[in-house]
Amino acid sequence: MKKLFxxxxxxxxxxxxxxxxxxxxxxxxxxxxxxxxxxxxxxxxIESEGTIYKKNGVAQDALTTLKNAGCNTIRxxxxxxxxxxxxxxxxxxxxxxxxxxxxxxxxxxxxxSDTWADPANQTTPxxxxxxxxxxxxxxxxxxxxxxxxxxxxxxxxxxxxINSGLLWPxxxxxxxESQSLQLxxxxxxxxxxxxxxxxxILHYAGIGSGATWFFNKMSSxxxxxxxxxxxxxxxGKNLADVNSSITSLGQxxxxxxxxxxxxxxxxxxxxxxxxxxxxxxxxxxxxYPATNEGQKNFVLxxxxxxxxxxxxxxxxxxxxxxxxxxxxxxxxxxxxxNQALWDFxxxxxxxxxxxxxx
Length: 358
What we know:
The protein is α/β, with parallel strands linked by helices.
């Protein structure tokens, strides 16, 4: 009887122990891979001249406001040797460090120019203008290497809106196609070798047939993401065309697609005397009026369109911080203050909600 009692007791202990040790399998934490980015390249300049950004009327660091809204990536432009004191290497490095410390991924838009690079302008830095093609390629690669070492972005963009190449005239995609592709390939190879985990974007301004032509030309380049600028004023007012381009490019090239730049006005009014880019009703999409809600709904539409497309990876709002920071009569303030993410009193707008993860 005693032996039987001990046996029963032992079985009971094993049974209890087994039950107690069984733990439910934890659900994996979902990764937040969808890019919700804001370009804040003017932020250091604007802050240096005394502008204070706000949330609900209370002073708040612009990056804190963006982070709390759900923005997870900060995009920053980099100029080589600018003649103005902005977008310099040191300024960009400092801002990138600040963004990383705030919990953001950093996306660098490297212009490979001393000033604005876009479809109409891709001026070779003054320091490189007398170089042979071979030496120009070496200089661009070495410069890229320095960027990777000292700033170490999560995402790097080889040029900005390089519809016709970069580093003109030697890297012009139409006039010097072979050299243009050699430059881009050499820069890409350096990134792959030095920082294999850094993602590479190639960036075209526009959608449709132009984008198709460009990315077909880029088929030999080793890169990760297709980047497209989409502004209704320049690239058409039909969001279905945006979706179609994402699908077509994604399928053809087996790449994820990002709307690398977009923006929309919350008003057609102005807050300084610097001429605004958008200021007329015929520049708008009828569905989205130039109101607080219209701006928010436009960005939500872009986010949802990209998110619901199997080839979409994210979006970036351009000029998010570019408020009228030099006073209401400034002629060299902002041509974008009615498209910023903060209103004319520097207060965060409802469009911030569009950066939420859901």
